[in-house]
Write a structure and sequence with these properties.
The protein is an alpha+beta fold. About 60% of the residues lie in helices and about 15% in strands.
């Protein structure tokens, strides 16, 4: 009996080696064929992502097929078939998860976000990424349930579980309320899209871009490269600024305090010339006006447009620097100053 067990073990190892060799040779040939031809995104993504699951799935299927031919004790055969069935459920769930990533690759390849007009692409990216994560979570839950149902003890407890389902459901709902709230908020964001991937936002005083939208949290990449991680429900229940909700175009402004003697028209012409020579200006809007005054100075606002928030920031800094240099070089008397008037006292 012991010698036959060794033979069966050697046969199982041989089957695994043969299946692995076939898998390696087959995938190498497929990879060479895909590389040589103008293959689609689906073919490239499927070949890359299905390589690992299929490496386990093919030997497992062969073992499951040949196992009944081994003359093993019925109890051992039953246990091995049960273990193989569990492994098959796990691998099939893994394959299903991988296919969601393949679907994501195919869709996102058609919509690039590294271009100027990327509003539609960012909308699609946000929806696909969030829905893919929901699908992965659903597949995982279904797979765990199917694995548990393979155990007879779990099926025998079904009646008792159903009888206590009300109490357990209430306890589970209370315990999982924060998670469930964030999951529902994630689905809501995928549908209504108050934010999208690469949106420029101001959240709780932090300026940054939406870097990642997970199922339960959002990552904001702040301008100084820090990451602000927020529960996704926070963005549903709290106000925030979205600078790219409908388009990436944005207006920037520069405020300058000058003396009342400042030549407004000359400064306005200099402002227009500065914009005309700047690559950051999108040539849509340029306006300089006196917007306020105090007892000692008046305030100029230079309003300008740019194609996105990053470019707008660079443009504002450039205009501020060059306007200050222009006024200081050509009209130094126009810089803010404090006037003091002295009067002689009455002589005795």
């Amino acid at each position: 009996m012991q010698s036959s067990t060794y033979l069966y073990l050697i046969a199982a190892i041989f089957i695994v080696l043969v299946a692995t060799s076939v898998h390696i040779v087959g995938f190498r040939r497929l990879a060479a064929k895909v590389k040589a031809s103008h293959s689609s995104v689906f073919e490239r993504s499927a070949l890359r992502r299905l390589k690992k699951p299929s490496r386990v799935l093919i030997p497992l299927l062969l073992l499951e097929a040949f196992l009944p031919t081994f003359r093993l004790p019925s109890d051992l055969t039953s246990e091995l078939l049960h273990a193989g069935g569990i492994a098959l459920i796990v691998i099939l769930a893994w394959t299903a998860v991988v296919m969601t990533y393949v679907f994501e690759d195919v869709v996102l390849a058609r919509y690039r976000i590294d271009v100027t007009d990327n509003l539609k692409a960012r909308r699609i990216h946000t929806q696909i990424i969030v829905l893919r994560r929901v699908a992965v979570a659903a597949i995982s839950v279904i797979a765990i349930g199917m694995v548990l149902l393979t155990f007879g003890q779990v099926r025998a407890l079904g009646t008792g579980l159903l009888a206590s389902a009300g109490l357990v459901g209430i306890v589970a709902a209370v315990a999982a309320k924060p998670t469930a709230t964030n999951v529902v908020a994630g689905i809501q964001i995928a549908i209504s899209q108050p934010i999208r991937i690469d949106d420029v936002v101001v959240v709780d005083g932090h300026w940054g871009r939406i870097e990642e939208i997970a199922l339960t949290y959002v990552v904001v990449r702040v301008w100084d490269m820090r990451r602000l991680v927020l529960p996704i429900s926070y963005l549903i229940t709290n106000p925030f600024e979205n600078w790219t909700k409908s388009s990436s175009d944005i207006l920037g402004w520069v405020l300058l305090d000058v003396d009342f003697k400042a030549p407004i028209e000359e400064i306005r012409q200099a402002f227009v010339q500065i914009l005309a020579t700047s690559p950051n200006w999108d040539k849509n809007l340029a306006r300089l006006q006196v917007v306020s005054s105090s007892s000692t100075t008046m305030q100029l606002r230079a309003l300008m447009s740019a194609r996105d928030s990053s470019t707008s920031w660079d443009l504002q800094c450039e205009v501020r620097e060059r306007l200050i240099d222009f006024i200081a070089s050509n009209y130094p008397d126009a810089l803010p100053r404090t006037r003091t008037e002295f009067s002689r006292g009455l002589q005795k």
